[in-house]
Amino acid sequence: MSSPEPLLTLDGVSAQFALPGRPPVRVLDDVSLSLRPGQVLALVGESGSGKSTLGRTVTGTLPENGRVVAGRVTFAGRELTGLPERERRAVRGKDIGYIPQDALLGLNPLLPVGVQAGEPLRAHGLAGKAERRERVIELFGKVGLRDPETIYGAYPHELSGGMCQRVLIAAAMSTGPRLLVADEPTTALDVTVQKTILDLLGGLVAENDLAVLLVTHDLGVAAERADEIAVLKDGVLVRSGRTREVVADPGDAYTEQLLRSSSLGFSGADAAAARHERTAARVPADAPVVVRAREVAKTFHAHRGRTAVTAVAGASFEVRRGTTLGIVGESGSGKTTLVRLLAGLTPPSAGSVTVDGEPVVHHRRGAGQAALYRKVQMVYQDPFASLNPRTTVRSILEEPLTGHRIGGAAQRARRVDELLEQTGLPASVADRYTAELSGGQRQRVAIARALAPHPEVLVLDEPVSALDVTVRRQILDLLLDLQDRLSLTYLFVSHDLGVVAELSDEVLVLRHGDVVEHGPASDVISRPRTDYVRRLLASIPGAAPAAAAAPSTP
Amino acid sequence: MSVTETEAAVAAGPAGPAAPAPARPGEGRRRRWLGRLVDVARTPSLLVSYVWLVLIVTAALAPTLFAPGDPLAQSGDAMLLPPGPEHLFGTDDLGRDQFTRTVHGTRLSLQAAVIAVLIGLVSGSLIGLVAGAVRGWLDSVLMRVVDVMLAVPSLIVSLAIISALGHGTINIAVAIGINSTATFARLMRSEVLKVAGARYVEASVFAGHGYAYRLLRHVVPNATRSVLAYATMEIGSAILTVASLSFLGLGAPPPTPEWGLLVAEGRTFIAAQWWLSLLPGLVIVVSVLAVYRIGRSIDRGRTRVVA
């Protein structure tokens, strides 16, 4: 499988970014790697570890203020570093393909995707117009896009995220490259789509003797897909080697931490059983029902009311105090709509939701909802979008206190300190702007804000999906801990059944707005009744295959 | 760009929490101002712009600091002198020191520009805020009115307003302000719509405050940022427009020193005594450039903060 001659070698590569008025920041420090044809090398690290920069030094697309200050990048026996831009361009997009992270940002919304996928062929003058079309359509078929002829003329907004990612893979493959640099190709996607995309990449490697540089923050993905793993931390290579060796013997604290954060060797049944024990010890069996939904449904009208889209079709459930209801589904399954119905952000078309016996109402400007929001608070998916960038942490945390008229000034100040402590943030964070905080810190602030008015119910809308695996681990632990201490009721939404299994007592699986399965977590996860749930289980990156293959033996 | 900034933020990240933390509220703000000051000091063009701005503002407040003489004092034996150590900008046909006149004219020109922008900013922002926040039929009505204002040539509107109010620099300012209201309203409305759709605005409903509070607390500060940046740039344009309308003779009556008027008076002698028009004109150009430069830096700073 592997020929002796490496295709790509990095020899002591260091790179730095120049910042106006500050000393240059070194983002890569003496990194040496090699990659043979037919191999997948995974670059693993948290955000800011320099893994994307490494990918960019290979493609030669560092931002203007970044440059390689030492070392050599050699590709197919040719040194790339220091090559003039003209010659670099001859290699980039021809011998080295690149797959960006965000498929929707990677495509021009005003051009048909087929034309864009043929762009590398046109840029390198490899094919005429008719030939390009033919090649692209053939590639579209290869990357698993159904009906390639139609897709050729489609625009990005008409395709799903997974389909866009396939288009970009087709574009990268169009020139028959020998190396693909895939920069977090699946981070923005659902786990089920992630699995199919990674399967596709794996197939291409085997078929074309392709080498792949896979940049990812998830060691689970890397362990499952790569032949070799290189772990980066603050621009320094801390561990590299064959995948099996790295997983069996991390030999480095950071690698071990990444390994523990990933869902490698994850077993849904075990997680659900552990969760069951944890809840049983804390929540009495006759705990009162806090949230009750009765046949709640939402239909959207499109095209001036001519077509109706059912986002949620009649969901009914009850959640007891101190327990968690996990709501799972792929994007487009209606889980976000369901959350908005539960939080009173959208009025239901039919049915009702009650919290503590009080009906959840909706008003466009939030009038009359303050009483509800003393009991129900929400944590959003993206902590970069859900916090006002122009306020300090203190004022963010004080806002719900003043809004719900809790305590005087001195009490509020104490409460802010208490909230920071509860969410594991240093007290010094209070007077910083949210723009200065990292993603994990921001999500902690968002959780602290939600806790401020002593709510009973927290609606958690994919609270960890936008975070790195290590941070995800910490936030999940924090949520578990808070639930134990404050006996909170959670409504936890995620596309990742692995995450849901860890902190849910009951699971509700949504598909196209319908409730596919609903029941105690251990039942749904250990004995899935539908193929859909089995597929969700199988797509948890790095999960133990036993959990996925578990047959439905009643 | 964004990649660099993320990397930089990350690079600063580990050092951040370890750094001595601000103890009292408000210290974070002070730290930010200090950082901004350092940024300014490190960008020469920006530094020059700020220095110039400070100079002209000082000249407007206390003109005698720079030119102790009387701007109206005529002198029979110092007519049409070229620039020199005695008369930095030369003298005009009545022997008045042109530099003194330019310095003393700063107040009126600057005052007019600032009033013009303030009128446009306040009225335009209010209209835009109401339209963007209330939506519905009120939005449609306000925006159609704004469309009409944008459709009529601004010079004609200015002339109409000035002929109604009478000549004078402040009246010019009012005319310019009314003219720029439409643009400010448009900009404010689009910013309000953009910000109102942000997640953090939706999230603020959970804090239990009323709609007006949420609007003032989350929407207005985030929406006004680019409106304010535009307003600084608009000061530059207003200086120019005030000068042009004064040049046309719609501003202050002749003996009053005013930048546009100085240029206008000097044009009679432009072939032989070029400095009479050129030097006050250069002062206008440099002032406008400085204000533009500062406005641009504020606008750019905005993208950095949000990213």
List the helices and strands and how they pair.
The complex is a heterodimer of chains A (554) and B (307).
Chain A: E1 8-19, E2 22-35, E3 40-44, H1 51-59, E4 66-75, E5 78-79, H2 85-91, E6 96-99, H3 113-117, H4 119-123, H5 129-142, H6 148-152, H7 161-173, E7 179-183, H8 191-208, E8 211-216, H9 219-225, E9 228-233, E10 236-242, H10 243-248, H11 253-261, H12 268-282, E11 289-302, E12 307-320, E13 324-328, H13 335-342, E14 350-355, E15 358-359, H14 370-375, E16 376-379, H15 393-403, H16 409-422, H17 439-451, E17 457-461, H18 469-486, E18 489-494, H19 497-503, E19 506-511, E20 514-520, H20 521-526, H21 531-538, H22 545-549
Parallel strand pairs in A: 3-8, 3-9, 6-7, 7-8, 13-18, 13-19, 16-17, 17-18
Antiparallel strand pairs in A: 1-2, 1-4, 4-5, 9-10, 11-12, 11-14, 14-15, 19-20
Helix pairs in contact in A: 5-7, 7-8, 11-18, 12-19, 15-16, 15-17, 17-18
Chain B: H1 2-12, H2 15-18, H3 27-42, H4 44-61, H5 98-134, H6 136-151, H7 154-165, H8 169-196, H9 199-203, H10 211-247, H11 259-266, H12 275-306
Question: Keywords, please?
Answer:
heterodimer, A: 554 residues, alpha/beta, Rossmann fold, 6-stranded mixed sheet, 22 helices, 20 strands, 38% helix, globular, disordered C terminus, B: 307 residues, mainly alpha, MetI-like fold, disordered N terminus
Give me the count of strands of chain B. Answer: 0
Count of domains of chain A: 2
Shape of chain A: globular
Determine the CATH topology of chain B: MetI-like fold
CATH class term of chain B: Mainly Alpha
Please work out how many helical segments of chain A DSSP would assign.
Answer: 22
Structural class of chain B: mainly alpha
> How many discrete structural domains of chain B?
1
Main-sheet strand order of chain A equals 6-7-8-3-9-10
Q: In this structure, how is the largest beta sheet of chain A organized?
A: 6 strands, mixed
**Estimated structural class of chain A:** alpha/beta
The tally of beta strands of chain A, per DSSP, is: 20
Strand content of chain B: under 5%
CATH architecture designation of the largest domain in chain A: 3-Layer(aba) Sandwich
**What is the name of the CATH topology of the largest domain in chain A?**
Rossmann fold
